[in-house]
Amino acid sequence: MRWEARELGGTDPAALLPLAGLVRTVRTPDFAGVTFHEVLCRSALNRVPAASSMPFAWTINPTRGCLHRCTYCFARRTHEYLDLDPGKDFDTQIVVKTNIAEVLRKELARASWKHEHVALGTNSDPYMRAEGRYRLMPGIIAALAESGTPFSILTKGPLLRRDLPLLVEAARTVDVSVAVSLALVDPELQQRLEPGTPTPRARLDLVRAITDAGLECSVLAMPILPWLTDSEEQLDSLYAALADAGASDVTAGALHLRPGAREWFLAWLGREHPALLPRYRRLYAGGSYAPADYRKWLGERTGRVRRRHGFDRRPPRRWARSPEPVPTAAPPAALEPAQLALF
């Protein structure tokens, strides 16, 4: 079924899920095995709970579910709210908020809006491959910039290049932060871990394109995987490649395994690296986060590599909640930066 043959035209009686605002369900040979559920959303802005350790108060997620198929994705469990499973369904049943830009404009125009920082890329990648069809991001970027709202984007998708002129223009009037997610440069391991994502080379080229456009580009090297990607040699190769691509900063953090992602990742580990499975079960026996001593060890190792490649010359960028932060207890992963997103 071709996209062009199915323009929006009311509720689809063949829709498979009882989703609020569902307009139609679409399958296409261009995305084999994937079903898109197109909905008309009622809201675009999501408030981050006050108790969260995240440094921003608002997020936007144009989609639910993600085509990147990252085995470790901690947002997987959110699909259970739709009566879908956090494994294969998260990778193949994608909810698309087709009217999100117009809804966002209305929300940003409210007198109560305080122009707080808004983060994109927290539960699904806004530049996954389907964005080439839906083109939701240009409208979102324009709405945020025209309203005077600062924003950040985290992505693995080189499709962001398409919108670089819009981001450069937006940065003239609001604070714009762009980050690329890349935690390893071994293409073979990367494709086994993240089979739907662009290659490390493609993401390094994206970092360079962003910096060449005049924007700073930070990198989230998350998650670092115990015994798989945490050796001195692997981290040195990663940081060297990022420095060469022009990254302004790198934030690294250890894998954490929330329910939903935990079962999916450990099943993958059992297939791909069965000898490591008992070690991971012991390491993560205490919960979702790696133990404090491992996080401290990893922080010291990445700190050395950071300094070696010049990333210690400027403080990492952080977004402050506004207008007033809510004091909270230190998160379980206090010895490492919070994992800001699933990518």
How would you describe this structure to a colleague?
This is DNA repair photolyase. By secondary structure, the protein is an alpha/beta fold. It has a domain at 1-134. Helix content is 31%, strand content 15%. The protein has helices at residues 88-92, 100-108, 131-134, 137-147, 164-170, 187-193, 200-212, 232-245, 261-272, 277-283, 292-308, and strands spanning 22-26, 35-39, 45-47, 58-60, 63-64, 93-97, 118-120, 151-155, 176-181, 217-224, 249-254. Strands 3-4-7-8-9-10-11 form a seven-stranded mixed sheet.
Characteristics:
343 residues, iron-sulfur, 7-stranded mixed beta sheet, metal ion binding, alpha/beta, 4-stranded mixed beta sheet, globular, iron, lyase, disordered C terminus, metal-binding
